[in-house]
């Protein structure tokens, strides 16, 4: 599966964005052979399982210019790098506790010419900044993630949804969600946006202040 699946679901891409999404594959193929940031068994599903999955966030909110987003526990750059391509007027701060993964993120961003990303080797709980949104792809149990990040988003919202956490995860989340206190919760089924079987159990959780 190639980048055409991205163009199918996001038909308004500019030529530059299309070229950046196409280039993603060769960049990650190069780096993944050296530093394992994506399961090598899963690399043939790169666009479906990693790029399109990351972009599910854009089906829930179209970030406005000057929005500030932290990708907490970005790994090799997901969902931050695909979102940074899609939203060039939005600032993305990608953090991870594994230095070699942040090295990959920095190299990929540089090769793509992304001017709206900053990457840092730091644990998410040590970040002393605030953002409009904190995004992530299932880096840990949701209650732990919330505990580490819930005080890191601005109170004043200017996007079409409230500032908060946008967390991509699959499976049954009810037990984890019950443990999250003090935040409102909205769950989006990704199968509403994408027809591929992979998304049947995938969800996006939006957590925000009451």
Features:
alpha/beta; Rossmann fold; seven-stranded mixed β-sheet; 7 helices
Condensed summary:
With 210 residues, the chain is an alpha/beta fold. It has helices at 4-9, 15-32, 46-55, 80-86, 99-112, 142-149, 174-178; strands at 68-72, 91-96, 117-121, 133-137, 164-170, 183-189, 202-209.
**Domain module tally:** 1
Q: DSSP strand (E) fraction?
A: 15-25%
Structural class: alpha/beta
Quick one: biggest sheet? 7 strands, mixed
Gap between N and C termini: 41 Å
Number of helices: 7
Number of strands: 7
Strand order across the biggest sheet? 3-2-1-4-5-7-6
Could you characterize the architecture of this molecule?
- It is a single chain.
- This protein has about 210 residues and is α/β, with parallel strands linked by helices.
- It has one domain: Vaccinia Virus protein VP39 (Rossmann fold, 3-Layer(aba) Sandwich), CATH 3.40.50.150.
- About 30% of the residues lie in helices and about 20% in strands.
- It has helices spanning about 5-10, 15-30, 45-55, 80-85, 100-110, 140-150, 175-180, and strands spanning about 70, 90-95, 115-120, 135, 165-170, 185-190, 200-210.
- It has a 7-stranded mixed beta sheet with strand order 3-2-1-4-5-7-6, sandwiched between helices.
- Helix 6 (about 140-150) links the parallel strand 4 and strand 5.
